[in-house]
Write a structure and sequence with these properties.
Blueprint: H1 8-35, H2 46-49, E1 61-70, E2 74-81, E3 86-92, H3 98-118, H4 125-140, H5 146-160, H6 167-170, E4 175-180, E5 188-191, E6 195-199, H7 205-218, E7 229-233, E8 239-243, E9 254-258, H8 267-272, H9 278-289, E10 294-298, H10 304-311, E11 321-325, E12 337-341, H11 354-363, E13 368-371, H12 378-387, E14 391-397, H13 401-409, H14 417-420, E15 425-434, E16 437-451, E17 458-467, E18 472-475, H15 479-488, H16 492-511, H17 517-529, H18 531-546
Parallel strand pairs: 3-6, 10-14, 10-15, 11-12, 11-13, 13-14
Antiparallel strand pairs: 1-2, 2-3, 4-5, 4-9, 5-6, 7-8, 8-9, 15-16, 16-17, 17-18
Protein name: Type II/IV secretion system ATPase subunit
Family: Belongs to the GSP E family.
Pfam families: PilB3_C (PF23989), PilB3_N (PF23990), T2SSE (PF00437)
């Protein structure tokens, strides 16, 4: 045993040898830097350079899906744990060895100043980062292979201009929500196919605190221990709720990022997802054209804003539309659309809330007003606008027609019952399960009537109802369609013929795969201009495709 223990002389000799070795390495590094090197940077070639990232499923898990989120650098693997009966989500990124990690740390420090200096040269951020990386590696005298160069370039861009560890998740089109609940806890995502899934991404205490501060800074907001909660919109349009420290979130800093599709969902998308039927969308279309006001209600993540954005594509092409939101979520392909968002006072100036924006909006003389969510004093002004001939769309947190009416009439909204009756339609949505899948469905579409003279209560009826047991929608009588028939001077058969034609239009667009919001809106506008002509053209295309 004594022979295995180092002596004092041996320890001193080892220390001298280590110092000599360190000095020699410094000399070699200095010589390399003086000598420099010349890289021949080219695009990454997976076949020649090999994969940058590798993944093998853990022993108790079975791989069931794999797809790129940032090819050829990062991809996602979905596994299924048989014992736990749950899915797992793995974000797979390039693997850096010790040398590459040290090199990355050094490059990240050295590249900051040149990057800031060279921004604004007209080159994209990624090009700037790659050029600086190439220059630095040549200056270091490092003979880096293309796998090393591209791996480091990926992490530089991810950390400087992307979203760091969460970047693969936010590049995944299947992800709707990203939730971090505290220090050293796995991040959870809501996946459109596998629902709530645990990921392999987590943050240490220092990492998470810095990350939350960075997210706030990226969106132009301030978060601190004294002011630890922030709701904001990130540069890519995602909505984020941030909490810093352990005072309000005891398990540590937290964030939830809610993503929105680059392409907003159209009525065709919602029909194909089963959220609404073709009959319901034709009904919305006819009502919106004839200036009927509408509220979408439902719980969190039931799809209220998505549906409101989709049916807004039915607004006639020349009508003036004005939207008011806390965070930017709506996306319309409409020539005469004025979008506005609220503003919280920072260092100077005044807060601009929904009430301020709505009062200002009425001076712009809009025909259609879209309000992100009704929850306070702005509701009175919104209903005043309805009473003076403006068509309004909005959303509200409520799970039934009765709850919507109750919330509107009581604190803190306090809309008088006589004004509530100016609302025409209520669509109540739900996030539920059908055939072992989580789905969004329009639970009911109601129509608001007048005040019952006998009871003093507000009358309402159901135009459509969802039957959970069969996953089908049932159509009932509609007083709004009767109103439209009277306004237009149509006979009953003329009303039904127009409804059938619009249903056929939506059916044809679905069959032809027309679901991009620009193309969809353009075809709706064509319908307004000459319905017979566009229907004839669509029928011909469908017949040709069928042949």
């Amino acid at each position: 045993m004594s022979g295995d223990a180092p002596t004092a002389d041996g320890t001193r000799a080892e220390g001298i040898a280590d110092a000599v070795g360190a000095f020699r390495r410094r000399l070699e590094r200095t010589w390399e830097m003086l000598r420099g090197s010349e890289l021949s940077v080219r695009p990454f070639r997976p076949g020649e350079d090999g994969p940058l990232a590798a993944f093998t499923a853990p022993p108790d898990e079975r791989e069931i899906d794999r797809y790129w989120v940032n090819a050829p650098y990062a991809y996602v693997v979905i596994t299924y744990d048989e014992r736990e009966s749950e899915h797992r989500y793995y974000a797979v990124e390039p693997v850096l060895d010790d040398f590459e990690r040290d090199l990355f740390d050094r490059v990240a420090d050295d590249i900051r100043d040149p990057l800031l200096y060279r921004e604004g040269t007209g080159r994209t951020d990624e090009e700037t980062l790659r050029a600086e990386l190439e220059s630095l590696l040549e200056g270091y005298g490092v003979e880096a292979g293309m796998d090393t160069f591209h791996s480091i370039a990926y992490y530089l861009y991810r950390d400087f201009r992307g979203f760091g560890k969460v970047d693969p998740l936010l590049n995944d089109d299947h992800i709707e929500d990203v939730s971090c609940d505290g220090y050293d806890l796995p991040i959870f995502v809501y996946h459109d196919e596998y629902t709530d899934v645990e990921t392999n991404v987590s943050f240490s205490k220092a990492e998470l605190d810095n990350y939350v501060i960075r997210l706030a800074q990226q969106s132009g907001r301030h978060v601190s221990v004294g002011d630890p909660m922030v709701e904001t919109t990130l540069p890519d349009g995602s909505r984020a709720e941030l909490a810093l420290g352990e005072e309000v979130t005891p398990r540590g800093s937290a964030f939830t990022i809610r993503q929105y599709a680059d392409e907003p969902f159209t009525p065709i998308d919602l029909i194909e997802y089963g959220t609404f039927s073709i009959e319901q969308m034709a009904y919305f279309w006819l009502c919106i054209e004839h200036n009927k006001s509408l509220i979408f209600a439902g719980g969190t993540a039931s799809g209220k804003t998505t549906s409101m954005n989709a049916v807004s594509m039915f607004v006639p092409p020349r009508a003036k539309v004005l939207s008011i939101e806390d965070t930017r979520e709506l996306s319309l392909y409409h020539d005469n659309w004025l979008s506005s968002v609220t503003r919280e006072r920072r260092h100077e100036g005044n807060d601009i809330d929904m009430y301020d924006l709505l009062r200002s909006a009425l001076r712009h003389r809009p025909e259609y007003i879209i309000v992100g969510e009704v929850r306070g004093e702005e509701a009175i002004t919104l209903f005043q606008a309805m009473n003076t001939g403006h068509t309004t769309f909005s959303t509200m947190h409520a799970d039934s027609i009765e709850t919507v009416i109750n919330r509107l009439e009581n604190e803190p909204i306090n809309v008088p019952r006589a004004m509530v009756q100016s609302l025409d339609m209520l669509a109540v949505q739900t996030l539920t399960r059908s055939n072992d899948q989580r789905v969004r469905r329009a639970k009911t579409i109601g129509e608001i009537g007048g005040i019952d003279q006998r009871t003093g209560e507000l009358d309402y009826s159901s135009a459509f109802e969802w039957r959970a047991e069969t996953d089908e929608f049932r159509r009932n009588d509609s007083s709004l369609l009767e109103e439209i028939q009277t306004e237009r001077g149509w006979s009953r058969s003329e009303l039904l013929r127009e409804i059938d034609r619009r249903e056929r239009f939506l059916e044809l667009l679905s069959a032809l795969g027309v679901n991009g919001f620009r193309r969809f809106t353009a075809l709706v506008n064509e319908y307004y201009a000459d319905a017979d002509r566009v229907m004839e053209r669509l029928e011909e295309r469908a017949e040709a495709d069928g042949g």
